Structure formats: structure tokens, C-alpha cells
């Protein structure tokens, strides 16, 4: 008897607006893959930028902003692809706490596989950052643009 009452309840948080027509799955997957590739590209370029300006706050803030935007775009597209609903408060909370909320989202939507994907991407992003640094560092060094024996370098 109790189950019938709960089954007939209306969700008070559901949006009164009609859902937009969903994109075809192949188009959503291509967009998500492009977003992921863009995330890895900014990690590569951020790593390379550390060779030129290690203590630059502007680079860090730009990188952080781009990362938050791109990872949020990916997550919200994935939420829409999975036909889940979210509200504005959850979206704002997600954007404020991106690394933690991405972990929570992947764990809740994919279980242990989501935790594995989060860890794999975390490690991969770190390696891409390091690869970007070393490509720029050795590129400058071996091209003769940077002399490590110059005493000015160490001041």
C-alpha cells in the first residue's frame, strides 16, 4: 500500500520546461572526445609553459579556468547523454569543487569503473603535463636557444 503512494508522487524538483531534443549518440561522443582531447592539450601546454615562466600566476589562473570549463562541459554533456537531471545549484557546486565532484560523479554513475577512470585520467594528465615540460625544455636546450651553463640562468 505504501509503495503505491510513493509511486504516484510527482517530483517537485523536476523542470517544468520540456527537455530539448537529444543529440545523436555519435555526435555527443565526438563532442565529448574533443573535449577530453582539449583537456589533455591544455595540460601539455601548461607543462611546456612552466619552462618559460615557473612562478607565473597568470598562467596558473588561465590553466585552471580552462580546466574547470572543459571538465564541466564534458561532465554536463555526459549527464545529458545519460538522461539524468540536475539543477542549477548542483551545477554551481560542481564547478566550484571540480576535482572532488568529478570523482563523486564518476563513482556514482559508473561505480568502481568510474573510480578507475578518474584515477587513470588523473595519472595520465600528470604525465602529459610532465611530457609537455620536458618537450619544451629539451627542445630549447638542444636547439641551442638555452644555455644551461650560463650563470644568469641560476640567479
Computed structural class? mainly alpha
Can you give the mean pLDDT? 81
Q: Name the shape in a single word.
A: elongated
β-strand percent reads under 5%
Describe what this molecule looks like in 3D.
The structure is a single chain. Helix content is 72%, strand content 0%. It is mostly helical. It has helices at residues 2-7, 25-52, 57-81, 88-96, 98-110, 112-142.
Gist?
The chain is mainly α and 155 residues long. It has six helices and no strands. 9% of the residues are buried.
Describe the SSE topology:
Blueprint: H1 2-7, H2 25-52, H3 57-81, H4 88-96, H5 98-110, H6 112-142
Question: What key attributes describe this structure?
Answer:
about 160 residues; mainly alpha; 6 helices; about 70% helix
Amino acid at each position: 500500500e505504501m509503495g503505491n503512494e510513493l509511486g504516484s508522487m510527482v517530483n517537485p524538483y523536476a523542470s517544468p520546461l520540456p527537455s530539448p531534443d537529444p543529440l545523436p549518440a555519435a555526435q555527443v561522443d565526438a563532442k565529448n572526445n574533443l573535449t577530453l582531447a582539449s583537456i589533455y592539450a591544455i595540460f601539455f601546454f601548461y607543462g611546456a609553459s612552466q619552462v618559460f615562466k615557473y612562478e607565473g600566476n597568470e598562467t596558473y589562473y588561465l590553466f585552471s579556468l580552462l580546466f574547470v570549463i572543459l571538465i564541466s562541459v564534458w561532465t554536463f554533456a555526459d549527464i545529458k547523454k545519460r538522461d539524468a537531471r540536475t539543477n542549477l545549484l548542483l551545477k554551481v557546486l560542481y564547478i566550484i569543487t571540480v576535482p572532488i565532484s568529478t570523482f563523486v560523479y564518476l563513482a556514482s554513475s559508473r561505480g568502481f569503473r568510474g573510480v578507475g577512470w578518474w584515477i587513470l585520467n588523473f595519472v595520465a594528465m600528470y604525465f602529459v603535463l610532465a611530457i609537455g615540460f620536458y618537450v619544451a625544455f629539451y627542445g630549447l636546450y638542444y636547439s641551442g636557444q638555452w644555455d644551461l651553463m650560463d650563470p644568469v640562468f641560476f640567479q
